[in-house]
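Readers of this paper often ask what the protein records in our data store actually look like. The remainder of this section carries one protein's record, kept here as part of the documentation.

:::
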Amino acid sequence: MTGVRVCGWGELDDGAARRVIVDGRPVALVRLGDRVHAIDDTCSHAEVSLAEGEVDAEECALECWKHGSLFDLRTGEALTLPAIKPVAVHTVAIDGDDVFVTLADDERSNR
């Protein structure tokens, strides 16, 4: 399996975010049903942890707790102001109970 093992499937609550560190980089994991999404864990507007925000399952997005910007979990795009810059999206693989993350090559959130 490629990537870094970050946790077990059972450690992720459905509809909630969790912060993990992958090769020194903070990543927000979000489980929605049988899928797990991974995006950079730093808001591109306020530089706070996105994993502390609320998950919007209907929009497949994560809301920054500080100013309310929504980030699409599939694309990393900022869906609402005040954020206008996207965050990087990372690849997630599930192998049995293990969750692996492979970091994206770009570092859009690292300005």
About this structure: The chain has a mean pLDDT of 94. The beta strands are 4-8, 17-22, 25-32, 35-40, 55-56, 61-63, 70-72, 89-95, 98-102. The longest strand covers residues 25-32. Residues 2 and 88 are 19 Å apart (CA to CA).
